[in-house]
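Hi L.,

As promised, Sulfotransferase:
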Amino acid sequence: METTADHQHLGEVFRQEPPVTACTSVVSRLCESPKPDGLHYIDMEKVDGVWYMKFDAVDDMAAHLREVRSLRMRHDDVITCGFARSGNHWCFELVNMVLNQTTEFKTDYFSTNLLDIPGNLASIPSPRNLVTHLRPRYFPAEVIKNNTKLIYIIRNPKDVLVSMYHLNSRFSYDSWRFRGSWEEFLKFHLAGDLPMGHWWDHVKTVERFAKAHPNLPVHIFQYEKVRAQPVEEIRKLCHFLGHSDALAEKIALVTRFENMKKKLGKITAVEKLVFSENGVVLRKGEIGDWKNFFSREQSERFDRAFEANTVGSEWAKRVRKYMDLPHAS
């Protein structure tokens, strides 16, 4: 049961008043769209054809996205973007360590650097590691002007969906928590009715954005590769960010999944506040956990949708082998 005290405490993590900025007219609001049958209780809003969670922190999502477009960018900002549950928290910590040339975890939260909900981003000291699940049309306009470095996180969508289901089903708050079965969750995702829309739409829009702006520095952070060969992939990340890779081995060690679960007390604090149990944000981190949840029919159904919606996407090809699909030529 939610209480006033709970929401005040949530505000300390999720909501700070953003600075007043001029709005652009890029983002349209389609709030007339009714919520899908079976999801009427979730606190979400549809903007430009995609549902977004509001987390009781956003009164008007379209207005907030206009403010994001107007965010002033600094020359040394980095934006890390990925579909939810793709390894975003892990990448956030890795990028922090590389940018600050340390093996210590920073005290700031992933959520305080998040573009998706209001926050006092101007107060974050440089270099800022800004994170988002948003599509590029909502990136700050100055990203292109400043050639801001963009890191895109990609992960097997089957593992992504299983992780999303476990997280969304364990929110403590009734207006956030998904109350259906795994099969219902999968159906809603395939229909584009869950927050963030389709996985493949997210991948393709960022891919098109990168190709349309060839001067924009883009680094692909592939979850499976970083898990399999962390030192090598962290070295690549260091070089992309313009830093020495001397700490790559140490960073790989301290950010091993098991170590992060033990050391990141700040995540445990958020979990006690937001979720019905601990171990949700950093759940398993396994490659191939989807095989424990997808039935054969569900896997084949998802594969058909994946094949139909990723034609021509070079980025989507990167995850095929982890989905047990044949390699595309």
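Residues 253 and 259 are 8 Å apart (CA to CA).

Thanks again for sending the construct details.

K.
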